Fold this protein.
Amino acid sequence: MHQFQIERFAPFDINGIDASFSNASLMMVAGAGLATLFMTQAMAPKAMVPGRAQVVAEGAYNFIHSMVRDASGAEGVKKFFPFVFTLFIFIFMANMLGMFPYFFTPTSQIVVTATLALIVFATVIIVGVTKNGFKFLKLFAPSGVPIYILWFVIIIEIISFFSRPLSHAVRLWANVFAGHVLLKVFASFVPMMAAAGFVGILGSILPLGMTVALYALEFLVAFLQAYVFALLTCIYLNDALHPGH
Amino acid sequence: MDAEAAKYIGAGLACLGMLGAAIGVGNIFGSFLEGAMRNPSAAQGQFGNLIFGFAVTEALGIFSLLIALLLLFVV
């Protein structure tokens, strides 16, 4: 489909690795730039009684702050809040900018979401091993499990640990991708029906209304998936800090 | 039956996996509402748990969608 096609604006090649500046890169830079601009401008007055922009900026900050505190405790806030907040804002901006017609959605490419998920996965392993050493392996052996089923639980825990980056990446990608395909399918019903004459034009109101409703749903999904990604990041990072369950 | 047809049948069958995810996600939100109606003051604090359960359950449906898409476009 046309909306998922990569267009290379500035072809660039490093030893066979395609590092071109494409429309996907442009949207990611635009999302990050807009978010940075908004945050710095909104918080510039540092007013005691905040204006509208400052309320939005502080609201986003507080929202993620309380999420990180609930999911990974005070220690998690101290260590990972900037990381999680950046992740959330980046994915949120990418999803939201993608909702504009004719705009490219970076998160509809699995390479983008897989990179984000692998960053989180690597962070969990690095932080877990440096902080806990060999005790990090207790993550795979929950306490209080009877010894004769422990081997089975360990196998399940190892599988679930290594399928985390997969589900983490695929969840975001598939939701965004499937949502956009769904919109395209319903929108294409409108001209198809309208081509069938007067009755068809009247009938095409139905898929048009459905497209509008789905668009509203996609805005919810765009926010919710960014939130889910950030929340799961917190939960995984909490495992790295406290592997013993 | 040629391979092309089998591919499409397989993709359709893979989508049946989403049935389970649909039941699970419905169950989560239904149970949440049930609990929230009994004790509305405690409902606010459980939003994170609600979304976490939703995300973990939904992942399994997404896996079956992934298999369907792989069968359609990659294999």
The helical segments of chain A are 23-43, 52-98, 110-132, 147-162, 164-194, 198-203, 205-241.
